[in-house]
Amino acid sequence: MRHIQREIAGRVVLEDGFKKPIASVAGIDTASLHDLAFTACVTVDYNSLEVKAKKTSMARLDFPYIPTFLGFREGPPIIDIISSLELKADVFLINAQGIAHPVLCGCASYVGVLANAPTIGVAARKLCGECDHEPKKVGESVPLYYGGRAVGWSLKSREGCRPILVSPGHLVSLQSSLDIAIKCIKNHKLPEPLHLAHTIANDEKRRMSQ
């Protein structure tokens, strides 16, 4: 599995390969219940953040949860939902790591390469790397370094919340990953399309568990 991750990491493009100006951004999140994955994708207008489309799916998971190997577990249902979209977003925000990963292949990079889609990873906790200091003010960002290179950002997105970790997945530059994430922040810790996808995925999980 590490060999596969390294091979995929070698195919990651850290240059902007998305349409400009950006018209739409989608957030994708997956909530799991035993061996079921509930995946939600919410596409919003990039300028107004108004919802343009929503889609959900349910799939069986055939890979266990193992830290740093999330792509093998949640990657397939995320790729499937991207492939099924009638309205393709210009950039996808995924609740996972991008290159801020021990072998530079978090789930957002895994998905980006295999789906050939511009992706950004947005996560609540870091897997690796260090920052010079933790951002304190809302809107402040600090580079995240790992192995002597910048792999992402620690971003203070909301007062009273710990910073989120933003890293490019595929076809997005380091700076653009931060700029796009900040542009999509509204009233929540996560960027708006990702917050909505997270809420919907977990609502589906709760509905099925009742």
CATH-defined architecture: 2-Layer Sandwich
Which term fits the overall shape? Answer: globular
SS-based class: alpha+beta
| Number of DSSP helical runs | 5
Cross-sheet strand order for the largest sheet: 3-2-1-4-5-8-7-6
User: Helix and strand succession?
Assistant: HEEEHEHEEEEHH
CATH topology: archaeoglobus fulgidus dsm 4304 fold
Share of residues in strands: 25-35%
Give the overall pLDDT as a whole number. Answer: 97
Distance between the termini: 35 Å
- Please identify which CATH superfamily we are dealing with: archaeoglobus fulgidus dsm 4304 superfamily
Query: How would a textbook summarize the main sheet?
Result: 8 strands, mixed
Q: What's the helical proportion of residues?
A: 25-40%
Low-confidence stretches: none
Give a description of the structure.
It is a single chain. With 210 residues, the protein is an alpha+beta fold. It has one domain: archaeoglobus fulgidus dsm 4304 fold, CATH 3.30.2170.10. Helices cover 29% and strands 28% of the residues. It has five helices and eight strands, in the order H-E-E-E-H-E-H-E-E-E-E-H-H. Strands 3-2-1-4-5-8-7-6 form an eight-stranded mixed sheet, sandwiched between helices. Strand 2 and strand 3 form a beta hairpin. Helix 2 crosses helix 3. The longest helix has 18 residues, at 192-209. It is globular and about 45 Å long. The chain starts with a helix and ends with a helix.
